[in-house]
């Protein structure tokens, strides 16, 4: 079975953007591939030195992974900081890439702009090198990510090639697996759904909360009265219908265009469809509510299994390098 390495930085509760951009894909890949799911806690340090919320955020995030249907018996879930080999391979790989190559990374540039950061730290510049170590340690052949992460997977391919050429073949070249909805717009019409922009629907939101949040969603500004004809192609709520309510999509489109469907009803139906799709997640999440120790057990078990693979790879790395 081909191996998949997927990961996320622990930022707490996940939203619909995480789900359609990555998580749903992870679950779909479970039968077909051998999956490793990484909590990229060291990556958090590239943009913040405050570590006080990392543990809580990790537990909330993996509860959402489990709620989405990740089966931890099949697919180990583990923290980067608990497997020392990530740091070790990161160090070796960092010698095989130039700073100029890393400075060209568009994701870094975007982050620097968003965070108003002039001088990235040495570690921040190395973000994709650490990510490459994450992927290559498990010999991941496929990496399910959103579009913004594709440049990082490209760097991991270059590093695999570079290592193999320099020391002997150890690593397969990983391939990015993009999802068609890799970027879900936020409720306010901004390009990206994000908790910090307050435009997100969380996977753990109750149906009433989803209704409330949807009520504020951005729609066609020219559809002012209920019976005004609308333009679904520029409407955010319609975009959500296409993704979460495909069965009613055609009817919603014609209702909006003719003016027979008002925004209030349209939003209500959209919220219902989303709540319906999230119902099985709510059910599975409940099992872990108030049971952080069960979540810690999931990590401990995953970390044992991940460490065995990581150690075997590092032995091959040392052998190829003649470090015996
Ligand atoms: N950089 C990824 C993100 O922000 C998280 C990540 C870290 C990752 N290591 C990884 C993703 C390895 C895939 C594979 O989303």
Can you give me a brief rundown of this structure?
The protein is 53% helix and 7% strand. By secondary structure, it is mainly α. The protein has 2 domains: 213 residues, HUPs (Rossmann fold, 3-Layer(aba) Sandwich); 79 residues, Tyrosyl-Transfer RNA Synthetase (Orthogonal Bundle).
Descriptive notes:
The chain has 324 residues and is mainly alpha-helical. The chain has 2 domains: 213 residues, Rossmann fold (3-Layer(aba) Sandwich), CATH 3.40.50; 79 residues, Tyrosyl-Transfer RNA Synthetase. The chain is 53% helix and 7% strand. The chain contains 14 helices and 5 strands. It has a 3-stranded parallel sheet. α4 crosses α8 and α11 crosses α13. 39% of the residues are buried. Bound molecules: tryptophan. Tryptophan binds next to β1, α8 and β4.
Quick tags:
single chain, 324 residues, mainly alpha, Rossmann fold, Tyrosyl-Transfer RNA Synthetase, 2 domains, 3-stranded parallel sheet, two-stranded parallel ribbon, 14 helices, 53% helix, 7% strand, globular, binds tryptophan
């Amino acid at each position: 079975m081909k191996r998949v390495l997927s990961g996320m930085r622990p930022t707490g509760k996940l939203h619909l953007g995480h789900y359609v951009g990555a998580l749903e894909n992870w679950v779909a890949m479970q039968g077909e591939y051998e999956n490793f799911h990484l909590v990229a806690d060291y990556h958090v340090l590239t943009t913040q030195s405050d570590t006080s919320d990392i543990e809580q955020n990790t537990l909330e995030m993996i509860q959402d992974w489990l709620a989405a249907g990740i089966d931890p018996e099949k697919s180990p879930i583990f923290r980067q900081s608990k497997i020392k080999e990530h740091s070790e391979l990161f160090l070796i790989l960092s010698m095989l890439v130039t700073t100029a190559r890393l400075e060209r990374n568009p994701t870094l540039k975007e982050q620097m702009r968003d965070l108003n950061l002039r001088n990235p730290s040495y570690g921040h510049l190395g973000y994709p090198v650490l990510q490459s170590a994450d992927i290559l340690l498990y010999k991941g052949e496929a990496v399910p990510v959103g579009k913004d992460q594709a440049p990082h997977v490209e760097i991991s391919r270059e590093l695999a090639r570079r290592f193999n050429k320099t020391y002997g073949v150890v690593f397969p070249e990983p391939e990015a697996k993009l999802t068609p909805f890799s970027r879900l717009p936020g409720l306010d019409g901004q390009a990206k759904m994000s908790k910090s922009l307050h435009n997100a629907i969380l996977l753990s939101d109750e149906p009433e909360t989803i209704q409330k949040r949807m009520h504020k969603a951005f729609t066609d500004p020219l559809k002012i009265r209920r019976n005004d004809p609308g333009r679904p192609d520029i409407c955010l709520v319609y975009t959500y219908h296409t993704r979460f309510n495909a069965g009613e999509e055609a009817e919603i489109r014609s209702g909006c265009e003719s003016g027979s469907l008002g925004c209030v009803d349209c939003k209500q139906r959209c919220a219902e469809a989303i709540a319906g799709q999230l119902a099985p997640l709510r059910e599975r999440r409940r099992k872990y509510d108030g049971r952080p120790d069960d979540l810690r057990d999931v990590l401990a078990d995953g970390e044992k299994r991940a460490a065995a693979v990581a150690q075997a790879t590092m032995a091959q790395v040392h052998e190829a390098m003649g470090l015996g």
